């Protein structure tokens, strides 16, 4: 398992946390992978497909976060929490399972619940800002 595939697999796990692998969340995964790794659409789709298999085959999140910690220094992990929240919130909903996963992942990445809350609030504010800037339909 490479660090890149572990990063992608945990994004998939976040999207699947509430047992609804929503197309909006799939698209958000591709956006995050493109931004994080500088990949084009085909490479994002290929990495996501690989990550979907890896996520399904990985029993618990400890193995994924261990690989992620090898490639993401501590100072970069809050940005990764924002990536995870971006995927979770892409469908406009928040579920208990997703909150639970984020509490676990935050801890496993050496961060606090407060770091996850700040990341979520940041993403929610950005999403609200983006909605406010959309032109009204006529």
From TrEMBL:
**All copies of domain Co-chaperone DjlA N-terminal, residue ranges:** 5-121
Pfam families recorded:
TerB
Q: Which domain of life is it from?
A: Bacteria
Return the SUPFAM superfamilies for the record: TerB-like (SSF158682)
What is this protein called in UniProt?
Putative tellurite resistance protein B-like protein
């Amino acid at each position: 398992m490479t660090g890149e595939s572990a990063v992608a697999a945990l994004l998939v796990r976040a999207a699947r946390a509430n047992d609804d692998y929503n197309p909006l969340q799939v698209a958000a995964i591709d956006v995050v992978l493109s931004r994080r790794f500088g990949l084009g659409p085909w490479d994002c789709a290929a990495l996501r497909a690989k990550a979907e298999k890896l996520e399904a085959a990985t029993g618990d999140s400890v193995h994924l976060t261990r690989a992620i910690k090898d490639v993401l220094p501590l100072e970069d992990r809050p940005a990764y929490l924002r990536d995870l929240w971006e995927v979770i919130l892409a469908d406009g909903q928040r579920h208990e399972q997703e909150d639970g996963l984020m509490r676990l992942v935050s801890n496993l990445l050496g961060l606090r619940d407060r770091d996850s809350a700040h990341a979520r609030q940041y993403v929610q504010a950005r999403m609200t800002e983006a909605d406010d800037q959309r032109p009204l339909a006529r």
